[in-house]
Design brief:
Blueprint (H helix, E strand, L loop, with lengths): L11 H25 L16 H7 L2 H34 L5 H7 L2 H4 L2 H15 L6 H24 L4 H9 L4 H29 L3 H6 L7 H8 L6 H41 L1
């Protein structure tokens, strides 16, 4: 006769209440931001009525649109290069053994623990004093590539750490070349981690303020810097509308990234099934 399990002191209704409070704490400020972006008044904190005026004004705001274009240029370019470099580094650190690998594993995470102010100042000194480079959009892109690489490495390494090497051995027994094994087995299984790392790098690059502030020059103002500069004049509905637009844009990217990750995971599962059937 089985013993009766003791009841947990945390009942389901208490856990549901806890979850509701946590989500309310996390998302209530975002809801307030979106609501006040439709505020009719010029003040961003006093509600006087519903209006879409600030969204129409945002469409015709040349400075905000230029800042958004700069942000996309920086984020897309930094994501492409950081994903390529970070993925190769993750493969090297997980699938190969070489002298100093432990040291490289430690060094790759410096940008994760280093304060952004310190990294921003160090990059500024490097560009100005040693590289003799004029600050602009190029230096911002190089800076974003620098601190995004570590995030890609962490995510891709986590995916590769659970990789079963017996799948590659089975593919080799079936006559697959190393390149075929990589393209049909390793890459499909690592694709969800690569997409996740790319999305994380893009998101971090999209909203960076501190490092961009130190490494930007004339004509390289990004959207976070533009919003930060506008906040000096107080919180207005135009800033709320701009922030809501960035929020919506992030949600769309998250949905696209999730769809790609699910599709890549299915392809990886298909590759495993094909290897097993073969």
């Amino acid at each position: 006769m089985s013993k009766k399990q003791p009841k947990s002191p945390l009942r389901p209704r208490y856990l549901k209440l806890h979850a509701i409070l946590v989500f309310a704490f996390l998302f209530a400020p975002i809801v307030v931001l979106v609501v006040f972006s439709f505020n009719k008044a010029k003040s961003g904190t006093d509600w006087t009525g519903f209006s879409t005026h600030w969204y129409h004004a945002l469409i015709h705001n040349h400075d905000a649109l230029q800042a958004f274009r700069n942000t996309l240029k920086v984020a897309i370019t930094a994501t492409i290069f950081a994903t390529a470099i970070g993925t190769l580094a993750a493969f090297a650190l997980t699938r190969f053994r070489f002298r100093g690998r432990a040291g490289y594993n430690s060094l790759i995470f410096i940008s994760l623990v280093m304060p952004e102010v310190v990294m921003g100042i160090s990059l500024l000194v490097f560009f100005v004093k040693f590289a003799h480079t004029r600050l602009g959009l190029e230096t911002v892109i190089l800076s974003h590539i620098t601190f995004c690489i570590a995030f890609v490495v962490v995510v891709v390494k986590a995916r590769l750490s659970s990789f079963d090497d017996r799948l590659v051995e089975a593919a080799a027994d079936l006559g697959a070349t190393p390149i075929q094994s990589f393209l049909r087995i390793v890459l499909p299984l690592a694709a969800p981690g690569i997409f996740a790392g790319a999305m994380l790098a893009f998101t971090i690059s999209l909203d960076d303020v501190v490092i961009t502030f130190f490494t930007s020059g004339p004509g390289s103002t990004t959207l976070p810097l533009y919003i930060f500069g506008e906040l000096r004049f107080g919180v207005s509905p135009s800033i709320n509308a701009l922030s809501t637009f960035v929020l919506l844009f992030s949600f769309v990217l998250l949905a696209i990234g999730g769809a790609f990750s699910v599709r890549a995971a299915r392809r990886g599962a298909g590759a495993i099934d094909a290897t097993a059937l073969g």
